[in-house]
Amino acid sequence: MRLFLISFSLLIASFTVHAESIGCVSTVFKLIGPNDKICIDSFSDPAVDGVVCHVSRAKTGGVSGAIGLAEDTSDASIACRQIGPITIKREIKDGESVFKESRSWLFKKLQVVRFYDKPNNTLIYLTYSDRVIEGSPKNAISTVPIMPWGKQ
User: Fold this and answer.
1) Where are the domains of the chain?
2) Can you list the GO cellular component terms from the UniProt entry (predicted)?
3) Do 114 and 96 form a contact (C-beta atoms < 8 A)?
């Protein structure tokens, strides 16, 4: 049983997308605790080589933000680009999650999901925020046409 749990944990961890922090800018000064910020992260699609996405979103500062109890806004922006030859490593499903980040202590998540527009040979990345009970209509998309790269 222990071996199963360890194997299962490693399997789940292998599907987790790790974002790389690019940087942040302060938007509101807080006397106590960190300032409110807009932060940018980058991540690669785990099922598609040759695509990188950048996500920006607000992070709440202050005391509640410092201890992880603040709920961040649902505002987010995304830009995805082809950075090399695009190789689809496995079957991809419409609406498949490629990135998740907690936006509050317990219930709210920022998600990026992928769709494939077959007639136009284009990958579409949608970012939105959701909660256990209701989400937000705020969303953004970025499209990546699948094009030859170099002398492909």
Assistant:
1) 2-19+39-58+70-145
2) cytosol
3) yes
Closest C-alpha among 101, 41, 40, 31 to residue 61: 31
Question: From CA 53, how far away is CA 90, in angstroms rounded?
Answer: 19
* Residue type (1 letter), 130: D
Residue 95 has pLDDT above 60, yes or no: yes
Q: What is the pLDDT of residues 73-82, one digit of tens each?
A: 778 899 999 9
Give Cα 139 to chain centroid, integer Å. Answer: 12
Put simply, whether the predicted model's pTM sits higher than 0.70 gets the answer yes
